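Schema walk-through. Below, the input block comes first and the output block second. Nothing else is stored per chain. Lengths vary across the set, and this one has 120 residues.
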Amino acid sequence: MKRIYMKFDSDTGTIVKEAYLSGELRRMRWVPGTLDTGATLHITLSPDENDTGDGLFVFQITDTGIMTFKHEGDITDTGGTGENARFVGAGDKLTAELRGGGGANQVHDGELWLYYSEKV
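--- output ---
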């Protein structure tokens, strides 16, 4: 299993990190920093390097400052179809945005680990 690591340094605005996924996304882990007072973590997958749109929605959590989360097992679609969706990239752009909670003095930071398997 391979890993993508993203460190979000302390900020009050939106922080965007990008990486490239070549395999199936299998696990995620978020650990808030000591200064994190809440934000939204939004993860998307875009098949085109130059894609500036929303991409394929993968995962989102809100109020990152109060929780450490760890997701193990298949990352699946819960959008009402009842079917599992596998998030597989072939060098596709994976974007993680840490969006501020709205208050001018709200700070957010933390670390994100994304684990993937090259065997699909």
